[in-house]
């Protein structure tokens, strides 16, 4: 009997032809797996570049139509939108105004490309004067969020988005009971068909830095550690996910993604039937961009490797600032 071939030899046989490599490849990414986050700012005439997110802009309402057409023509099917209002106040009133920045943007987007899926980020932090994700009635300056009052405001927000024509609601504030409150409001107002995508597992991360420049929504005092998860903890992801599913969430999400591949993997194993998204956030995008600008990393290779890893870990879809670039790379 001949000696058994060693492992490297066997693996080489599966790799020597590109067609075989493709036949046995486990993980693929397509444009249809990606969701592009987009920022829209009120009260500006021209799109404004975001310095810490090269290639990204705060879009003016006037600049939106052109961008939306381009996004669709690249082959993307979905965007997640964030609004930057002209005025912020204690209630975050712009977030539920029929003439708010998001409501106006949704109408323009759906008029331009009805087939493009619009996912609304639902939170108060871009709209409140203090930059926190909920209503604060505490005069001590501690960021204690009034949960019930916040839920009522979120309900008004989702209904105004639904009326404007959004396709999906993605509450991002990790406010207790937010999924149930939003589901109830939607069902009562005749929007039973609109799904919710919960930012169920959201860490108190340093990876959101550039996003705060993009949305001008950094907290004016305190931080978000009271309601976002401590990066040292993984098990709690199951509890957060279970609560959201019980409350009626249709899809779950983990954020950040690259630094939390273990959490993505574990959640997918625990809930194989539940669609799972991963948010590759602004900071994880900026790291690759900055290193590539210095010539320390190959941007395309690094981005594709990271996105592939996120899918391999178990994400069904990825929110990424690389979405447009990915489409261009994909076409080549
Ligand atoms: C809050 C929100 C944040 C992000 C998405 N929604 C910031 C935060 O929680 O502080 C971060 C996204 C990114 O960094 O790209 N509404
Ligand atoms: Zn928030």
Description of the molecule:
This protein has helices at 7-15, 18-24, 61-74, 101-112, 147-164, 178-188, 209-215, 236-247, 261-270, 282-293, 299-313, 323-331; strands spanning 34-41, 48-49, 57-60, 78-84, 117-122, 168-171, 197-202, 251-255, 276-280, 317-320. With 332 residues, the chain is α/β, with parallel strands linked by helices. It has a single domain (27-331), classed as TIM Barrel (Alpha-Beta Barrel). Strands 1, 2, 3, 4, 5, 6, 7, 8, 9 and 10 form a ten-stranded mixed beta sheet that branches. It is globular. It starts with 6 loop residues before the first helix and ends with a helix. The mean pLDDT is 93. Bound molecules: ligand PBG and zinc ion (ZN). Zinc ion is lined by residues 123, 125, 133, 172-173.
Tell me the number of structural domains: 1
CATH class reads Alpha Beta
What is Rg?
A: 21 Å
Helix content, binned percent: 40-55%
The ligands found in this model are: ligand PBG, zinc ion
Rough shape? Answer: globular
Unreliable runs, pLDDT <50, ≥5 residues?
Answer: none
Enter the CATH topology name. TIM Barrel
The main sheet comes to: 10 strands, mixed
Assign the CATH architecture: Alpha-Beta Barrel
- Total beta strand runs: 10
CATH homologous superfamily classification: Aldolase class I
Topology order in helix (H) and strand (E) letters:
HHEEEHEHEHEHEHHEHEHHEH
